[in-house]
């Protein structure tokens, strides 16, 4: 009996430590007057990211991880590479070959043809991994939504970690848009 209790205790500790190891802290903000329910196409902008360490993902891997994380959501997501190809076809400007600031300017000027809003990820990875997602309305660059998420300090800056953090952003963004939709439906029902 004593061995059984010890085994159960060890199993309990392993389960609790696994939950703590993958715990994230996050915060979201929907800005006053932001209409998330009207965002049907969301473009991914080039992330603001500098790899730190040997295990760190490259900027290209991070950009692809964000695009891969968007696969399970209802909102149509335009990856950065898709937007770059469309801009090159329409305007003859290759934003993939431009310096970062010029590429960002061209992206912002032209993305309204392909999406209703765009998201820019800023990565802070000095003493831990923190993602800051900022969603802007295309055309006006009005801030609609922000989402911050910090990984556990023991997680490595790998593609897998970055994809998990990005999946959390997309889940929260869709939930916020769905809540706005429900609220609008309730208000419309009250008016009738």
Description of the molecule:
With 192 residues, this protein is of the alpha/beta class. The chain has a single domain, classed as Rossmann fold. It contains five helices and six strands. It has helices spanning 2-21, 59-69, 80-91, 100-110, 159-191; strands spanning 25-30, 41-44, 76-78, 117-124, 130-137, 143-150. It has a six-stranded mixed β-sheet. It starts with a helix and ends with a helix. The relative contact order is 0.19.
Please tag this protein with its features.
single chain; 192 residues; alpha/beta; Rossmann fold; 6-stranded mixed sheet; 5 helices
Low-confidence stretches: 16-22
- The helix count comes to 5
Structural class: alpha/beta
Task: Give the number of DSSP strands.
Answer: 6
Adjacency order of strands in the biggest sheet:
1-6-5-4-2-3
Instruction: Identify the quaternary structure here.
Output: single chain
**CATH fold-level topology:** Rossmann fold
Layout of secondary structure:
Blueprint lengths: L1 H20 L3 E6 L10 E4 L14 H11 L6 E3 L1 H12 L8 H11 L6 E8 L5 E8 L5 E8 L8 H33 L1
Parallel strand pairs: 2-3, 2-4
Antiparallel strand pairs: 1-6, 4-5, 5-6
Helix pairs in contact: 2-5
